[in-house]
Amino acid sequence: MDVLRPQLLRIEGRIYRKNPIQEQTCQHEEDDEDFYEDQKEYRSTMLQGSMECTEEPCDAYVVVQTQQGFQCTVSAPSLLYKHIVGKRGDTKKKLEMETKTSISIPKPGHEGDIVITGQHRSGVISARTRIDVLLHTFRRKQPFTHFLAFFLNEAEVQERFLKFQEEVLEKCSMDRGVDGSIFQKPKKLHLTIGMLVLLSEQEIQQTCEMLQQCKEEFIEDICGGQPLEAEMAGIEYMNDDPGMVDVLYAKVHMKDGSNRFWLLRVLPLSPPVSSENLLQELADRVLERFQSSGLIVKEWNSVKLHATVMNTLFRKDPNAEGRYNFYTPDGKCIFKERESFDGRNILKLFENFYFGALKLNSIHVSQRFTADSFGNYASCGQIDFS
Predict the structure, then answer these.
(1) Res. 101: pLDDT tops 90
(2) What dihedral angle (degrees, nearest 10) is formed by the CA atoms of 152, 153, 157, 160?
(3) How far is it, in rounded angstroms, from Cα 212 to Cα 297?
(4) What average pLDDT does range 205-228 have in this prediction?
(5) Do 76 and 64 touch, CB atoms closer than 8 A?
(6) Is 67 exposed, middle or buried (0-12, 13-18, 19+ CB in 10 A)?
(7) Is the pLDDT score of 382 beyond 90?
(8) More reliable by pLDDT, 206 or 299
């Protein structure tokens, strides 16, 4: 790690730097990877926690004065409690000792708040800061559980997609790596806005409520109470070598002339805005809102609108989704082992393939690795535009 460019953690609008540490191991050190990782994260948090507490204003958290001193609560899903407790309670004990606080954590499997109490306000704030960083770090290690998406479930689009698959296999099956196993399921075609890690029913509910807030604050203005008319046409690939493709996607864009009335009515004095930008604007603003809340980790400033039609992850795992797999302990996304395919002939023959017209009328909070009775991803909640 470059010490001049440390990893930054964004937690509830504040930015922390994660200090590098040197680890030494000995022959008799306990051989427990989870324990070792927990302790490493704890020590890193302690280093930065002592620095952050001196820089952070005292009103950054809600700290309540009680008869016994001061108290602060932290809301966290039960799946993450173990990382605050540590093996044999060591992490919790160190936190309490070094911040001179008492930390109450609900029993495993029971949802509730972590409660921090102490005689000194600064100690409570210090413990809260360190717990926040630990929670953020270990949340980043969790696999994505849900995603925000537009479903592309029009009958015409699904029929045209099956036609695309049939013709590709007919004309290009001799090309390296091309076979039927790497095509998306027609009923699961979708546009992803952002990936989510939701670890409790409370977090799912919070996500649905925030999506509803987005509708009330800006989606209704953008859509004008009507579906966004779009079309799915043309194909493109993710990487820079058409002979070594892992993900092939169809492009989705607004239909020419759609939503012109909205543009003239709402923005009569503004510079001309292409109707094609409405879908991108809506997706970007939803992404920005969820990033600012911390529900989506900020990795991109804009949504890449695409509908995956071929993905080499499907070759070994039919239930895999998109390019999103799992994270290393430092939060870097790594890809599953995969066998690419030669997409040069497909791109040449189907460059402008027309998949059909779309009426995008809802955004769903969808659960990964699931299917409803219609074959779509199971939806935990949605908002409709009309």
Answers:
(1) yes
(2) 120
(3) 20
(4) 94
(5) no
(6) exposed
(7) yes
(8) 206
The single-letter DSSP state of residue 175 is: S
Which tokens sit at 88?
Answer: 């044999």
Residue type, 175: D
Q: Can you name the residues that pair with 228 across neighbouring β-strands?
A: 360
Tokens 């990795």: give the residue: 299
The Cα 254–Cα 263 span in angstroms is: 13
Is there a contact between 326 and 313 (Cβ–Cβ < 8 Å)? Answer: no
How does residue 44 score in pLDDT terms, banded at 50, 70 and 90?
low
Separation CA 116–CA 187 (nearest Å): 47
Task: Find the mean pLDDT for residues 277-293.
Answer: 92
Q: DSSP label at 369? A: T
363 SS3 class: strand
Query: Tokens standing for 190?
Result: 């979708």
Q: What angle do CA 356, 258, 190 make, to 5 degrees?
A: 40
**pLDDT digits 0-9 by tens, 13-27:** 555 565 554 444 444
* Mean pLDDT value across residues 214-236: 94
What burial class does residue 226 get, using C-beta atoms within 10 Å of its C-beta: 0-12 exposed, 13-18 middle, 19+ buried? Answer: middle
DSSP H helices, the chain, are 33-55, 81-85, 90-99, 121-140, 155-172, 201-214, 220-223, 260-266, 277-293, 344-350
Run of H or E residues at 253: strand 247-254
For range 48-77, the mean pLDDT:
72
| 120 within 8 A of 65, measured Cβ to Cβ | no
